[in-house]
Amino acid sequence: MGEAINLVENFKVENVIFNVGEYNELENELITVLNKKKINYYKGLKELNINKHKLQFLNTGVYDNENDNSNVIYFNYNDYKFLLMGDAGIEREKDILEKYNLNDIDFFKVGHHGSKTSSSEGFINEMNPKYSIISVGKNNRYGHPKDSVLNILSNTKVYRTDLDGSIEIKLNKNGYKISTCSP
Questions:
Q1: 70 Cβ partners below 8 Å, 6+ apart?
Q2: Which residues, in sequence order, are bridge partners of residue 176?
Q3: What is the pLDDT of residues 156-175, one digit of tens each?
Q4: DSSP conformation class of 102
Q5: How far, in Å, CA of 111 to CA of 46, rounded?
Q6: Could you tell me whether strands 47-50 and 53-57 are parallel, antiparallel, or unpaired per DSSP bridges?
Q7: CB 72 within 8 A of CB 56
């Protein structure tokens, strides 16, 4: 969230989607910028259609924890399943598994930068992801990703932004290609 204003100021942004729950101070600052630039923003979406593809927001409620209120997004593109976890924690993962069928995910964006507060063994085993992507800063002060999470992800090919740099997944009707660009 801390770089959102920078992104809006320096890139063409048409719409912004906020997490569920109350707006925090940074979000209110961003809304001021969005209003000045006349950029639409939304909150509490259940789904978003982009061309013929649907993004589903797996919000199971409003929580008293800002991380658990982060957007969790599922989409299927050319029969490839994607799950983007935001910062949702283990309790939220349980709620998601109770409400949604998330078997055999192809591309999984690991929750909360590989923190031990998310990516429980039961959740990962249920999803059985082929590829897992961890967005994490190099030598971050939190020590993410945690070894316990990496151990849970041992049956998936893991890509990490701190080691692999940017990670690009290109899909077409013949398959996909994953490429990285070193940091």
A1: 19, 86, 87, 88
A2: 171
A3: 999 999 999 999 999 988 89
A4: -
A5: 19
A6: antiparallel
A7: no
Identify the burial level of 168 via C-beta atoms within 10 angstroms of its C-beta, where 0-12 means exposed, 13-18 middle and 19 or more buried: exposed
The model's pTM is 0.91
DSSP helix/strand/coil, 89: coil
Q: Would you put residue 51 in left (φ > 0), alpha (ψ -120 to 50) or beta?
A: left
C-alpha to C-alpha distance for 84 and 106, rounded to whole angstroms: 11
What is the domain partition of the chain in residue ranges?
A: 1-44, 46-181
Under 8 Å between Cβ of 16 and 39: yes
pLDDT in tens, 52-79: 889 999 987 888 888 999 999 999 998 9
Is CATH 3.50.50.60 the classification given to domain 46-181?
no
User: CB neighbours (10 Å) of residue 64?
Assistant: 7
Q: Which two tokens stand for residue 99?
A: 């409400």
> Phi-psi region for residue 49, left (φ > 0), alpha (ψ -120 to 50) or beta?
beta
Q: Are 78 and 173 in contact (CB under 8 A)?
A: yes
Residues 71/57, Cβ–Cβ less than 8 Å: yes
